[in-house]
Amino acid sequence: MSNCIAIDGPAASGKSTIAKRIAEKLNIAYINTGSLYRAVALAALRAGRDLASIDRGFLDTLQLEYAKDAAGGYELKLNGAFPGPALRTPEVAAGASLVATRPIVRDYLLDVQRGFAGERMVVMEGRDIGTVIFPDAAFKFFVTATPEERARRRLAQDGEAADGATLAEVAREIAARDKQDSERSVAPLKPAADAAVIDTTGLSIDEAVDTIIGRMTRQQ
Ligand code: C5P
Predict the structure, then answer these.
(1) Cα radius of gyration (the chain)
(2) I need a labelling partner for 38 at 20 to 30 A (CA). Which of 53, 74, 76, 166 fits?
(3) C-alpha dihedral over 79, 83, 87, 92, to 10 degrees?
């Protein structure tokens, strides 16, 4: 069994905040795997590369590693630097979803993700952690919320929605990304058969975190 608490779910479901909080409470590492796909898209955009035809040669030019940031948590470094807010723009989010459809990209990033967990216990958050990266994870959760609730949350997050975007526009952007993530042929977004589905609509972050920790305690 892998030393991993897998937290998967669609865009803006609150899973990052929840996963981070669980890691803090349990005093273990937290890894956001969406950053990897975002970093590949960001690097390709910066290099003027066509996102739909990224090849192994391009991936091999990238240096991707998780390192502790000033706050003491693990953040992804791209070519030796923390990309910061550049990873969180709507263009990079859409580009991440596009590069994430490519098997060559997913294969490449699989090793980075498995390499990190190894011996230590980690909360790992993404789309395919419980289904592909760690199918034998110690605990698996699929965190979701209604599309309306997720659009509201995304709009409330600094810098994640385009300037001046309306709720309807944000809802459309999220729906397009979820569709692409769920319909791709490799590692599509879906709950693992043995994951607990947690609908956080109407739940506060604390309530969602308590629900998940409560389930893990009962499962042990
Ligand atoms: O979680 P985040 O919104 O940062 O992820 C950005 C994109 O990266 C997702 O829309 C998805 O296409 C891709 N992704 C993935 N598998 C993961 C994490 C993210 O395909 N484990």
Answers:
(1) 16
(2) 166
(3) -50
pLDDT band at 157 (very low <50, low <70, confident <90, very high): confident
Longest dimension (CA), the chain: 50
If you measure from the C-alpha of residue 191 to the centroid of ligand 1, how many angstroms do you get, rounded to a whole number?
A: 14
Q: Which atom in ligand 1 lies closest to the alpha carbon of residue 99? A: 12
Q: How far apart are CA 202 and CA 207, in angstroms?
A: 10
Give the list of residues 6+ apart from residue 81 with CB closer than 8 angstroms, or none: none
- HSE, CB side, 13 Å, CA atoms: give it for residue 132: 19
DSSP string, 113-147: HHHHHTTS-EEEEESSIIIII-TTEEEEEEEE--H
- For tokens 């975002």, the residue is 38
Domains and CATH numbers, the chain: 2-215 (3.40.50.300)
Query: 189-217 pLDDT, tens per residue?
Result: 999 999 999 999 999 999 999 999 999 99
Strand, helix or coil for residue 163: coil
**134 Cβ closer than 6 Å to some ligand 1 atom:** no
Query: In angstroms, how far is the first alpha carbon of the chain from the final one?
Result: 13
Token reading at 217: 């305690």
User: Residue 9: CB within 6 Å of ligand 1?
Assistant: no
